[in-house]
Amino acid sequence: xxxxxxxxxxxxxxxxxxxxxxxxxxxxxxxxxxxxxxxxxxxxxxxxxxxxxxxxxxxxxxxxxxxxxxxxxxxxxxxxxxxxxxxxxxxxxxxxxxxxxxxxxxxxxxxxxxxxxxxxxxxxxxxxxxxxxxxxxxxxxxxxxxxxxxxxxxxxxxxxxxxxxxxxxxxxxxxxxxxxxxxxxxxxxxxxxxxxxxxxxxxxxxxxxxxxxxxxxxxxxxxxxxxxxxxxxxxxxxxxxxxxxxxxxxxxxxxxxxxxxxxxxxxxxxxxxxxxxxxxxxxxxxxxxxxxxxxxxxxxxxxxxxxxxxxxxxxxxxxxxxxxxxxxxxxxxxxxxxxxxxxxxxxxxxxxxxxxxxxxxxxxxxxxxxxxxxxxxxxxxxxxxxxxxxxxxxxxxxxxxxxxxxxxxxxxxxxxxxxxxxxxxxxxxxxxxxxxxxx
Length: 439
Known about the structure:
InterPro entries: WD40/YVTN_repeat-like_dom_sf (IPR015943). By secondary structure, the chain is mainly beta. It has helices at residues 3-12, 18-31, 35-49, 79-83, 234-237, and strands at residues 68-69, 92-96, 101-106, 112-116, 119-126, 134-138, 143-148, 154-158, 161-165, 173-177, 191-193, 199-202, 219-222, 230-232, 243-250, 255-261, 267-270, 288-289, 302-305, 310-313, 322-326, 333-336, 346-354, 357-364, 374-379, 387-392, 397-401, 403-405, 413-418, 428-436.
């Protein structure tokens, strides 16, 4: 049950049953463990409405310049509009590709691995930058996520099972069963590898049992390249009631970052890369809790880093969302996404290797209300300023970052989904690659 989407529009326009609705809302909030989050939502909303955030310095700063708005009726399904939408001083643009990737990752040899909207069960490989793709392996159920290790081992999640391949996808072995068939790890954020090749997975999924969520907040780690796995329930022991959003090694901080959801939305850091089953004690080995109180923000669904900083994206559907920045893992600066993007959670972040250094791309998404716009954006100065690229209405479109790589590369892929109308329920997906504009 999504409390935000259930009550958001009604609470914004109260009617004669407003008091009854408010009481039902409070009961639901208490039942799903979101009281802390509700209080934070109220604090952030008041701060925004009364302009407590000082002189705009606590808001994400967008550079002036044109950007594509798919909210315009003539543009929201136009492939031509997207293909000419982002022309920077570097001469970049989006080019449609023929492979309908749902998500993909690039290996150091330039090959792309992924699954397709048109064939979710199939693992595909492309050697020619998405001009063509070869079916490598077919699973009995849809692929829900995938990951490639530094030792060129492929990991696929399907039907709640983690499969492993050492031979470029010719064969797979089931190595880990997650707690439910609908469980998986979030692509680009939910599985990671440490410098010593330790692998880690954070379980994600949402199962409502009428009065409570099924707890899926399990952390898994492997010291032998993913052949055998150890499960940790330390988050559940800390009172986390739902799942794990992010587990990711950070090169700049030489630490693993971990975020949980849904009732507490905390941020954890393991700085010594040891004791993955316990909270850090006096010796600092284990997981150190970063945010003591919910209003400090946490539970991030996305993280990416550049040579200068580490950035996080918040997960507050219907509330106030933030881009959070740190350079040392101790001081965190949070910037509010301004309206009309404020209520859209930042779902993913990707670092791209550009000619002048690192670019960081972020995608937000919300479908709660027409005036809560979503955005694809990028920054060239590690989050100090941002460029709007594609603005869209989440009720009509979804723009997703769908590519990943072990280290930043120049490749960047996005997918644009156009939702079907009442006459046609089918969705249309088009994938684009960021390329140099032809002379």
